[in-house]
Amino acid sequence: MNFHVLTLFPEMIEQGVNTSITGRAINNGLLSINAVNIRDYAFNKHNSVDDYPYGGGAGMLMQAEPVYLAYEAVKEQIDKRKQENIKSEEVTSTEPADCSEVRNSDLQDENSKKRPLRVVYLSPQGDVFNQKMAEEMAQEEDLVLLCGHYEGIDERVLEEIVTDYVSIGDYVLTGGELPAMVLVDAISRMVPGVLKNQESGETESLEGNLLEYPQYSRPEVWQEKAVPPILLSGNHQKVDEWRREQSILRTKERRPDLFERAELSEKERKVYGEE
Q1: Which residue ranges does the chain devote to CATH 1.10.1270.20?
Q2: Taking a C-beta distance cutoff of 8 angstroms, is the pair 175, 145 a contact?
Q3: May I ask the CATH class of domain 2-188?
């Protein structure tokens, strides 16, 4: 998967994602991070990309043209890569392909051409990011993340290029770089091969709108607190049942908003739905 981050601070993005799990995935060729400096597309000698807003008001606004030119450069880069991949596949394909496979491949290529490049603007005005959105965005081959700064970005370029408005919470930050890194981390975990144990990306917190169950490791007793006996029983079915129960109870106690949307069976609703 390829992330393209349009930002005023590319070094902040690069330093933030080139370590730990995402850094390893980048080194293994599973992810790529293209941090694009919007200032490189400014049209003045000072590389300034901000100006006063029409109508007055506090602060400065990012201008439309540098943002648009940065986006166009990324789009051109993606289109060029896709064309090169198509040519490479045509050259290396020596075995005759099944007609149905050819038709399916043609359909996929056609759908890919029609599909607009997905551009996410990180803004407190957007939908609050959640696990379902991370899973869905992980299906993209290329994802553009647009980081605002100052008082925001000229509305005209947002209308022209943005497909999604996403927030990471109801609070204001100085820029979109930290939210962009949050999205990169959460989405990357859903990309096959990024996690050493893929199951851990599918069964942890927030799957089915449930929080993760309590976890324990050695020693069996720590400061007079013992590991629940069921986890030492070796009965995997009972362990799974216990973990499910603990996830439900924990969600109900700590995140009642999630509990209302939790994916529970009718029996579980009857058992845990009432006080």
Answers
A1: 205-272
A2: no
A3: alpha beta
Q: What architecture is the 205-272 domain classified under in CATH?
A: Orthogonal Bundle (1.10)
Residue-level pLDDT at 57 = 84
Q: What's the pTM value of the predicted model, to 2 decimals?
A: 0.84
Q: Report residue 182 as tokens.
A: 């949050």
Task: Check residue 199 and give its pLDDT.
Answer: 47
Residues 54-84: pLDDT tens digits? Answer: 998 888 999 999 999 999 999 999 999 999 9
Which part of the chain has CATH 3.40.1280.10?
Answer: 2-188
